[in-house]
TrEMBL record:
Pathway participation: Pyrimidine metabolism; UMP biosynthesis via de novo pathway; UMP from orotate: step 2/2
Family membership noted in the UniProt record: Belongs to the OMP decarboxylase family. Type 2 subfamily.
HAMAP family: OMPdecase_type2
Source species taxonomy: Bacteria, Bacillati, Actinomycetota, Actinomycetes, Kitasatosporales
Species the sequence originates in: Streptomyces mobaraensis (Streptoverticillium mobaraense)
Active site: K99
GO MF, one annotated term: orotidine-5'-phosphate decarboxylase activity
Protein name: Orotidine 5'-phosphate decarboxylase
SUPFAM superfamilies to which the protein is assigned, alphabetical: Ribulose-phoshate binding barrel (SSF51366)
E.C. code: 4.1.1.23
Classification via SMART domains: OMPdecase (SM00934)
PROSITE patterns in UniProt: OMPDECASE
Length: 284
């Protein structure tokens, strides 16, 4: 199987055509209950199938949270495999939210799990944690480059606890978060129209970027959780990301999923969020 077109190019096209929005697939117990589903394999499968049916042919990115499937064991992972395959077949890019991070052969195995085209869970991109050192991510970065897939590195996350690590200063005075973005900027050098190596930067961090000494322009995508239930709005994006706002992929999960299991309501909610983002970033 030949390598795919680089993820950054595919993502840029999907965002331009479908709107810059990533919708999570987060079947946690409370949401399954709100949909009238059991907290079991049947409920999980119904939830995943409905979300993919409603959104995979119209949103740019779907982001399954692996943990919510893994908690059901091998049968849950089988549901995840089917959801990933069906979403990609319908035209959505799939970002696996696994937040893996390790060293050596273990990191290579994680990379192969999600970024090897022959793997059952093959996705267009995966989230990773760099806090064993950015260099420990090299197996995933190299495989992504070879296979045309993408990697999103945690940099400045939307949870308040993240600041104790991400805002910490190195001996050279740079914050840990700024250092991660520097690495990604180098990975994306000379990529067009957009690099394949992204960062996770929370949309709720209006003052956090300045506090961490961060320039969010990395030449690649910026996954921005926090829109909707966490309190950020599309209108906040230009204030947080400045000139890099066109490369932002806002992530909405509960804000859309709470409208299920009605397929039309899920579609209407996603379309509304996408339109709000287009207007906010000036691409509407």
């Amino acid at each position: 199987m030949p390598p795919l077109e680089p993820f950054g190019a595919r993502l840029r096209r999907a965002m331009d055509e479908r709107g810059p929005l990533c919708v999570g697939i987060d079947p946690h117990a409370a949401l399954l209950s709100a949909w009238g589903l059991g907290d079991d394999i049947a409920g999980l499968e119904r939830f995943a199938r409905t979300t993919v049916e409603a959104l995979a042919d119209r949103v740019a990115v779907l982001k399954p949270q692996s943990a919510f499937f893994e908690r059901f064991g091998s049968r849950g992972v089988a549901v995840l495999e089917r959801a990933v395959a069906d979403a990609r077949a319908a035209g959505a890019l799939v970002l696996m939210d696994a937040k893996r991070g390790d060293i050596g052969s273990t990191m290579a195995a994680y990379a192969e799990t999600y970024l090897d085209p022959a793997a059952p869970l093959f996705s267009d991109a995966v989230t990773v944690s760099p806090y064993l050192g950015y260099g420990a991510l090299r197996p995933a970065l190299d495989l992504a480059r070879a296979s045309g897939t993408g990697v999103f590195v945690l940099a400045l996350t939307s949870n308040p606890e993240g600041a104790e690590v991400q805002h910490a200063l190195r001996a050279d005075g740079r914050s840990v978060a700024a250092t991660m973005l520097d690495h990604l900027r180098a990975e994306n050098a000379d990529a067009a129209p957009m690099g394949s190596f992204g960062a996770v930067v929370g949309a709720t961090l209006a003052g956090g970027l300045t506090a961490a000494g961060v320039d969010p322009a990395i030449g690649g995508p910026l996954l921005a959780p926090g829109i909707g239930a966490q309190g950020a709005t599309a209108a906040d994006l230009p204030k947080v990301f400045g000139a890099a706002v066109r490369d932002v992929v806002p992530n909405v999960s509960r804000g859309v999923l709470r409208h299920g299991p009605d397929v039309s309501a899920l579609r209407e909610s996603a379309a509304r969020f996408a339109d709000e983002v287009r207007e906010a970033v000036g691409t509407g």
